[in-house]
Each structure stands twice: as C-alpha cells, then as structure tokens.
Amino acid sequence: MPDRTFPSIEQACYWMAGRAPRVPAALVGDLEVDVAIVGGGFTGLWTALSLKDLEPSLSICILERESVAYGASGRNAGIVGETLDHSHELAIAHFGLDEARSLARIGRENLDGLERFLADRRIPAGFQRRGQLTVALSDAHVEALEASARAAERVGAPGWRLLSGPEVRDEIASPLYRGALLAPRHALVDPVALAEGLRGEAERLGVIVRERTPVDAFEFPRDRVLLRSGERSVRARRAVLATNAWTHRLLPRLATRFLPLYDYILVSRPLTGPEWRSIGWKTGRGVVDARAFFNYYRPTPDGRILWGTSEAAYYPGNRVDPGCDHSAAPYAALEESFRRHFPQLSHLEFPFAWGGPIASTTRLTPFFGTHRGRLGYGLGYTGHGVGSTRVAGRILAHLALEKESPLLELSMVRKKPFPYPPEPLRRLAVAAVTRSLRRVDAGRRPSLLLRVLDRFGIGFSS
Ligand SMILES: Cc1cc2nc3c(=O)[nH]c(=O)nc-3n(C[C@H](O)[C@H](O)[C@H](O)COP(=O)(O)OP(=O)(O)OC[C@H]3O[C@@H](n4cnc5c(N)ncnc54)[C@H](O)[C@@H]3O)c2cc1C
Asked: What is the C-alpha separation between 346 and 135, in angstroms, rounded?
C-alpha cells in the first residue's frame, strides 16, 4: 500500500463509518452519582448494565473521552469466543484443570446470556452463532490443534472437533490449509451496533452517558471519589476505570501489569458472486490460523472480507494515541498475507484499514482490582474482550458494590498477572520476543528466551 494521508478513525474503521450520525452529549457542569464509570466501551457499558441489574435504583454515569465505542470496542473484528482465556490449554496451564473447567462453563453461559440479552431486547447487533475455525498451516499446527481438541474435551467444552485438510479446504478454498479445529459455538457481531445497543439499553434504564468528556484526574475527598474533566467534575460513592489500554494514563502504577499494543485490520470492497464462489466459505464462520502471530478473518454482513493480524505493534513509552491508529507496514503485511491465503483473490482491494489499542497481559487474561477501596478497574483482555467484557462488567459491578459473587473467587480476579519490565527494557523485551515468535511461525524451534518464558507461563500476544 503506498504512503498516503490516512483518514480519521471514524472514517477508516468500517464499523464506525457505517454508524448513524448523532450529536454526542458532553458533561455540562458538575454531577453527583452513586457510581461513575470512565470509558464508554464494552467494559464500561456492561458494568453499568450489571450495576443496574444488581441495584436498579443506583444513579450511574459513564464518562467517555470521545464517543461510545471509540476504543477497541468499536474497532475489533467482532469474533465472539466462548472462552475467557486465549485457549483452554492456557487456562489449564495458568489456573489448573478445575478452574479451567469453571472458566469454560462461565464462558459458555456468558455467550448464551449475550445471545438471550440481544434477542430479548431486540438489539440488532448482527449476532450470528456460526462457529469458528482455527486452521493449520503446517504439520506442527495440526499437532497443536489435536492438543487443543484434547484440552477442550478435558474442560468439558462441547462439540469442538478436528477437520482434515480436504474437509477444511472444501469449506474454505485456501491452498495453505492442512486441517482445522472447529469451535462450533463461537459467534460474530457488528461491534459498533453491539455497543450502540448496550448504550441504548443503559440509557433506557437511566444511566447518564456523557461523551467528549475526558477524565484527567481523580481525588478521594472523605468517602467519595471526585473525577475531574477540565472545569467539570463528577462526585461519586464509587468509580470504575473501564479505560483498558489507556488505563496507565490515569493510574500509572498499572503500567507494569499490561502492554498497550496496536492490532491492525483491513476490510475489502464487497466481493462479487464469482469471487465468493472462488473461495467457498458458505458457512461464513470466523477464522483464525494457528500461528503465534495469526491472521483472523470473517465476512461482513454486506459481503466484504475483514482481514486482521494479531502481530500487534508496541509503541515505546506505552503510547496510545491517534498517531498509532494507522501504520503502512502492517497494512502491507496484511495485504501480502491475504494474497498468500487466497491467491485467487489477489486483485481484491481493501478500502478500509485501521488499528486499535488492546491491553495485553503476561497470562493473556484480564485482571481486576481496586485503588483506595473506591476506584475499581478491570482490563487486559489481550485481544479477546468482545465476549469476556460482559463477565468483566459483572465482576466490576460486584467489586464496586462490595457484593459477594463466585466470580470474585476466580484466580483471574484475585491474582495479578506477572509484571512486564519498565522502559527502556520493555521495548527491548518486546522486540526480542517478537523476533523469537516470528522465527517459530517460520517453522523454527522456540528460542531459549521463549522456552524460559513459557516455563514461567509468560505470554506475549494480542
Ligand atoms: C483491531 C482489534 C481487533 C480485535 N478483535 C477482537 C475480536 O475479534 N474478538 C474479541 O473478542 N476481541 C477483539 N479485540 C479486543 C476487544 O475489542 C477488546 O478487548 C474490548 O473491546 C475491550 O473493551 P473495553 O471497553 O475494555 O476497552 P475500549 O473499547 O478500548 O474502551 C476504553 C474506552 O475508554 C475511553 N477512555 C480512555 N481514557 C479515558 C479518559 N481519561 N476519560 C474518558 N474516557 C477514556 C476510550 O476512549 C475508550 O472508548 C480486538 C481489538 C482490536 C483493537
């Protein structure tokens, strides 16, 4: 892709570009509420809805710097998993078999609950339970998928099954595919439509949503939290940071617990009938490949292909700003990888291209906590939050109200992930691990560095 001036994220992101225009309501003057939530993505919206579920009379406001779904929630691929971890194998490795089984059950119930929630409220979020394929590009991947299928069986995930090379190529015509693992219950959504639906539901229940309202600081006067946005302020009994990859800006000490990374995506023009026939893919399932830095893709409702990469970029100094929203190198790499998977579509153009910030943790799951007892936080979905933010919302609501829940007993909630090093070591560590993972993807043995990290259960992914 040639160098060019990139459009704003609102125009560049396929999901955002299709959103109906509206005038955002900013905070005017001061406000007093029971719970103030910072961040209008899935985490913030689900936290508000869970709080209303627990105590309908609570007064709640959401303060969003830009507009609802401005962050990762509006920029993702909309592939919704039934797992809360990156994989059942990692859940077993990190938390033990018993807890991995609980996480798998919570993940399944969560996806069922999301489907019911959208159906009951008639929210048109494009939810489609089509299943997801993880495709093998090498014999080593086939073996790895066999291990994943065994792990799914151990944690009691129903219906996961292996597909042979001919079976998967029959479903999706790529010469690279040698086998696949089908997770039959995974789903697809339109992420911006989902976020708008959640916002509509929250507002219907009385939640005040204020956009163009960046929170710059907070204080803890007596038994309250005071959130400041320029001259304006919100006083609350409790506050929740739902700011994911931006959280270190407000709570710098959390920077050790996560890496802000940028994932990049392309969306093609609509395919013609013959182009669709050349690729097959009648199931329209979401697909990921089995590499460490994998491609993920899905069809859009209007017949395009969304093509993304998990080879996320780290911008030194934990940068998260509009300057990272576009990058020519990952766009070129995305086009190149698409052509390798689908040479029959090598002419396909991609008019949409954008990036978005995720928060990655060393154990590849989110973490939770409270600051001074009154400010809760939950972040670090490591590129997998479309479904799990709904569970996070319940966790954060229980933490804010100090209510008991079996969710608060999960190790994911009780324990923090192993920290990442500070700068300047951080950028060097990320570069070294990235190089090692690229070598593994090229078919080489894991380096000593990766073997040591693996031994300590430390991952790097998006
Ligand atoms: C390119 C990409 C592809 C992805 N694909 C998938 C996928 O297919 N499936 C999947 O499960 N997950 C995917 N993810 C991850 C998923 O989107 C996230 O895990 C999830 O959206 C996180 O939601 P959130 O609400 O915690 O964070 P965000 O959506 O990032 O929301 C944080 C919000 O906080 C606001 N904010 C920040 N600072 C302040 C402040 N000081 N004051 C007020 N507001 C503030 C931001 O503007 C933002 O709106 C992807 C992510 C990206 C970037």
From this structure: 20
* Interval 72-96: pLDDT, tens: 999 999 999 998 888 898 899 889 9
Q: Whose CA is nearest to atom 35 of ligand 1?
A: 39
Contacts of 122 (CB under 8 A, 6+ apart): none
What are the boundaries of each domain within the chain?
9-414, 425-455
The CATH superfamily assigned to 9-414 is FAD/NAD(P)-binding domain (3.50.50.60)
- Give the residues surrounding ligand 1 with Cβ less than 6 Å away: 38-44, 63-66, 70-73, 75-79, 81, 214-215, 242-246, 250, 263, 265, 308, 356, 358, 379, 381, 383-387, 389
- DSSP type of residue 82: S
CA of 302 to the centre of ligand 1 (A): 24
Q: How many CA atoms lie within 13 A of 155 on its CB side?
A: 31
**For 393-411, how does the pLDDT look when each residue is reduced to its tens digit (9 = 90+)?**
999 999 999 999 999 999 9
**pTM for this entry:** 0.96
